[in-house]
Amino acid sequence: xxxxxxxxxxxxxxxxxxxxxxxxxxxxxxxxxxxxxxxxxxxxxxxxxxxxxxxxxxxxxxxxxxxxxxxxxxxxxxxxxxxxxxxxxxxxxxxxxxxxxxxxxxxxxxxxxxxxxxxxxxxxxxxxxxxxxxxxxxxxxxxxxxxxxxxxxxxxxxxxxxxxxxxxxxxxxxxxxxxxxxxxxxxxxxxxxxxxxxxxxxxxxxxxxxxxxxxxxxxxxxxxxxxxxxxxxxxxxxxxxxxxxxxxxxxxxxxxxxxxxxxxxxxxxxxxxxxxxxxxxxxxxxxxxxxxxxxxxxxxxxxxxxxxxxxxxxxxxxxxxxxxxxxxxxxxxxxxxxxxxxxxxxxxxxxxxxxxxxxxxxxxxxxxxxxxxxxxxxxxxxxx
Length: 384
Prior knowledge:
This protein is an alpha/beta fold.
């Protein structure tokens, strides 16, 4: 074992010491019963949400992380529109890099962030502060020294935010952890949660599984020692449908366009014919044989619901959606409807990705936002 494994041990112990009851000599450890202590009044604020992207994160180029962008990208009119459609919370993507120690000035950023949070709260909405860095930031978490820096950062950020409404402001540890070592991520997350709790004793924390917050990663993990925690997952299954035509992720996605939902052998065969990559062709055909429809989505969501029920935990889905550019509008509406209804059948709150981006519930032209009736309908909400 190298130094990395030796350094990991204390992090892993933080998790397993908290989730397994002491065992008698010679006996196998058993999972200790866990009861969440998230007030029902707080969970009620996280039923129907929307992600506010490209405001305090995903800003290109990075030089435009500035006061002008923060004050004009998403305005009070946008927040009022979100509230009028029936959303009850906003998941606010926050990139830590512009204010990370040694990377940038904090005063302007915090002033703008405070103003944004106040604006959202003033419209009766709750806010999830979603720490949403770029991939290069998350890649550095393989280094124990950088984990310490990130821990100190969260301690500072939580202290800054500790005066915000405990009922309606939530702290999400990290968006889509990319760690391939699940056990290392468990240890890191426990360390970060403890730092948040030091500075904000009463706010609710949102945690996630490893490897991009997938649903199957969530059910792999065991709960943190902290009981004032909601566990979240992201649902984009199957990616070949929800990300068809996307220029990021799997290389063959770029060739997949007009792939219908639900999946059928005939329609998948037509799309596969236009994919030049042989492996891509195979995945398109498998999409049909995997029988993606409302029943399949229900089975996936029920696994998460049952995992949470066995451990008496609160769970939420804070990202799901379909890339708009190449998906058929009716199929996109059908998929969103099926996912939303599966979540609601199991009492799982949801947050759609996103407000006005490439997956959006609205389109924006010259700063004017226009809700898409089909998406609003799929979400079970109302046109303003």
